[in-house]
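This section describes the prediction task in plain terms. A model, or a person checking by hand, is given the sequence of a single protein chain and must write out its three-dimensional structure as a string of tokens. No templates, partner chains or ligands are provided. The sample shown here is typical of the held-out split.
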Amino acid sequence: MDEHATLPSRQHRYDGLPELSEARLYARRETLFLVFAGLFLGTLAMLNILGITRFIKLFEIDFDAATPEATAFAVAVGVLPYPITFLCTDFISELYGRKRANRVVWVGFLLNAWVIGILWVGGVLPGWEQYDAATGEMVRDAAGRVPVFYEVRALAFGAVAASMIAYLVAQLVDVHVFHFWKKLTNGKYLWIRNNGSTLVSQLVDTTAVILITHFYAKALPISDGASVWPQLLVFIVTGYVFKAAMAMIDTVPFYFGAFRLARYLRLPPPDAVPHPPAAASVEAGVG
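The expected answer:
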């Protein structure tokens, strides 16, 4: 979608639908954009806190009966809502164009930095915690734990360090591949650009997050008695399969939503053949 096509001075005419005023059309388009951008950014903020605070065991498989432990397939709790971010960027890419989608991605990156900044400031300002005079370390409770804020802070630092790098690369890959497939198919086959962009970007994201979370944050539940790389591969495969399954599922709401929302916003349908420059200039006067 050409970004200029979303201007309220341009609206596509659909049979049976009335032409809208520029003010009403502008309100529709900007409100829907705020919904997608807000859902995208709100999900990111939630992921920064939840992130790797807990891992959910999906299932176990005992590949070697001679060993006491089975191989557990698990995903971080922060992974659960993450696929919605790719659905949001796909909707924004389809309805509002590549530039707006990239802007939202960059704002999300800055949001990650903002969350880290607040967590850092909240940890260095004076509070009521007790410190050991000999070691200078924070006094732990009877269970050997520091206050909850500092546990969440430490996990969030590890999660965000991983996600900031992986997120930026993966989301920009998602937007780029989405428009690559759209150009390659001349705007046809909506399901290809939706799934193709998401599957590629989520492979990048999953691999980066797992590797950074382990080697930098040391936060994965890795067994010391087994080789590290096979365990990391299990985390990558499990996370990617989960995200890929969610990507396949979200094809249905994206496919039907893109067509219905294009009508609602008076934009050309997703599978419309792009107009040549002369025809586009004529349509610009509509409304």
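For orientation: DSSP finds eight helices and two strands in the chain.
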